[in-house]
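Q: May I have one protein plus its fold?
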Amino acid sequence: MPRADTKQTPLHVAHVEAGARMVPFGGWDMPVQYSSIKEEHHAVRSSCGLFDVSHMGEFAFRGLAACDLLQHLTTNDIAELSTGACHYTFLLNGNGGTIDDAMVYRRDESDYLVVVNAGNIDKDWAHVQTVCKGFAGADVTNESDQHALVALQGPLALTVAASLVGGDLSEVPFHALVEADIDDMAVLVATSGYTGENGVEIFVSAENAVRLWSQIADLECVSLCGLGARDTLRLEASLALYGHELDEDTSPLEAKLGFAVSKTGDYVGADRMREQRASGTSKSLVMLEMVDRAIPRQGYEIVNDSGSPIGEVTSGSLAPWLKKQIGMGYVRTDFARIGQEVGIKIRDKVARAIQVKRPFYRRPSR
């Protein structure tokens, strides 16, 4: 039974009625699986999976100074984000550590929606409130309770989404945002996701969440999926998860996510990012494929061939689609080399692993 202070998404009743196994996650009571994690993982890789991600937070930024505020608050270049597009970005502290990773959606010339991680909503909102004091022309609102967000992911996701909105989405580029109606419900459809597959994320009002979910869930090719499969899917795709690969002591450059970090500008943490680009980082995120039969778990020590510690595993699992034991972790930068063998200390034994190219899984061209 969930704790009394555990939050519920607008879709909670639908999950319980569908027989989902519910678990606490980031302060929310969320479905971890409906059938099995393996079955749901394979459904997304081969067909289409439906996820509830309504626990994520949404902040609206509006007004003439909204662009300037986001340019200072986040690391990616907001000025280059066109209307009807979205991009990945970071909120940093002054030392370059990651307060959170986020997606920014530009809905109009001076209207942006920023989606943050569920467990960081309160922390992020406090940070935003502090930073925005210097930007009088920006209206910032925490709209987390107003939105529901569902994700359709997999090779059939765009086809399913097109049938719902009554239009062709095949030519819509990755990281685009489209206004649409589904059965008279106003929605925002974003071609984005967190599984390594093609897909969409659909924003709908909280009051229409169950109606939309039921309409999609009734489709024959759609499988209901929980957070368990979402985690194994993102791991196969080498996607970072806050609290694992990212935290306030780790920078995006250490996580090898510099594509979302501008080389110029005066955003919070910019000076530290320039220093790290110039002098390098002391630790680097690496992809680990096990040589010996073992699963690398978060917190396991990574050692060199002499048994001396050089880092730590941040995520690890059996990859259901690849049928391999894989993980991610940080090592001293002088040990971060593709093909370099390392050891994973598991209790009193050391299992061999090899560093491989990122990502573990890349969706085939379709």
User: Anything to note?
Assistant: The first helix runs from residue 12 to 17.
